[in-house]
Write a structure and sequence with these properties.
The protein has 231 residues and is mostly helical. It folds into two domains: 100 residues, no CATH class; 106 residues. The protein is 61% helix and 0% strand. The chain is globular. It starts with a helix and ends in a 16-residue tail after the last helix. About 7% of the residues have low confidence.
Length: 231
C-alpha cells in the first residue's frame, strides 16, 4: 500500500514541477470546448517556450544511451508493449529517469529537507508539523528571517536563491497548481535533475504526513505553544 501511495505522490509533484502550466492548459481546453479542433501545430503554438514537443514537458525524452544498466532496464519496461504505464516515457516514470543520468553532487541536506517540510506546512496550515519542525530548521541552518518570510507569507525578497526557489515552488504548486517558467529556471540554477526528482519525493512524503495529521486530528502537547498562525 505504501508503494502505491509513494507512486501517487511522485506523480503529483513531478507533474507540478515539470509539465506545462495551468494557464496554457486553460487555453487548450478553451479551444476544445469551443468545438474548434486543434491541429498539432496549433496545439504546440499554445505551449510555453520551454516545452519540448516530443515529451510535451520541460525535459526532453531521456536518451537511452545516457542511462546505466538499471536505467536502461526501466526504460525498456516503459516502452514495452506489456507496459502498464499510461504515459510511457513522457510520464512521471520517464521523468524520473533523468535523475539516473544526473551524476552531479546533491545539494539536498538537512536544511533543504526542513525547508520543504516547513514551506508545505505553511501552505496547508499544518500547525503541529510547523511547531515541531521549526527548531529542526533552525538547527539545520535556516535563518529566523527566512522562517518569518514563510510563516507570515511574505515575498521572498532578499532570501538566498536556494531557499527562494523552494518557497516559490511550494507557493505556486499549491496556489496556482502550476510552476512558472521563471521559478523553474531558478530551480534549475540551484539543483540538478536528480535533486529535483528528490524534492518532488520529499514534498510528496510531507503531504502524506500532513494528511495523517489532519485525518486523525493530532494535537500539540499541552505545553507546546503553536508557532504558526493559521491564515
Amino acid at each position: 500500500m505504501r508503494g502505491v501511495i509513494t507512486n501517487i505522490k511522485l506523480i503529483v509533484f513531478s507533474l507540478f514541477m515539470i509539465l506545462s502550466g495551468c494557464s496554457t492548459v486553460n487555453k487548450y481546453y478553451e479551444k476544445l470546448t469551443n468545438d474548434s479542433p486543434l491541429t498539432e501545430a496549433e496545439y504546440f503554438a499554445l505551449m510555453p517556450a520551454d516545452i519540448h514537443p516530443q515529451s510535451r514537458g520541460r525535459l526532453p525524452i531521456v536518451n537511452r544511451a545516457d542511462l546505466d544498466d538499471e536505467g536502461k532496464a526501466t526504460y525498456h519496461r516503459y516502452i514495452s508493449p506489456e507496459s502498464t504505464s499510461l504515459a510511457g516515457l513522457a510520464g512521471p516514470g520517464g521523468l524520473r529517469l533523468h535523475g539516473n543520468v544526473d551524476k552531479s553532487q546533491t545539494r539536498i541536506d538537512g536544511k533543504i529537507r526542513a525547508l520543504i517540510r516547513l514551506t508545505l506546512a505553511r501552505e496547508m496550515d499544518q500547525v503541529f508539523e510547523w511547531t515541531l519542525y521549526e527548531p529542526v530548521g533552525l538547527k539545520a541552518g535556516l535563518s529566523p528571517e527566512v522562517l518569518d518570510v514563510i510563516r507570515y507569507d511574505l515575498p521572498p525578497v532578499g532570501v538566498p536563491p536556494l531557499e527562494a526557489s523552494l518557497i516559490r515552488l511550494a507557493r505556486e504548486s499549491f496556489r496556482d497548481h502550476h510552476v512558472s517558467s521563471d521559478t523553474y529556471l531558478l530551480l534549475q540554477e540551484q539543483f540538478g535533475n536528480k535533486d529535483l526528482m528528490q524534492i518532488a519525493y520529499l514534498m510528496g512524503d510531507a503531504i502524506e504526513s500532513y494528511m495523517l495529521l489532519f485525518m486523525f486530528d493530532v494535537q500539540l502537547p499541552y505545553d507546546r505553544k503553536p508557532l504558526l498562525p493559521v491564515k
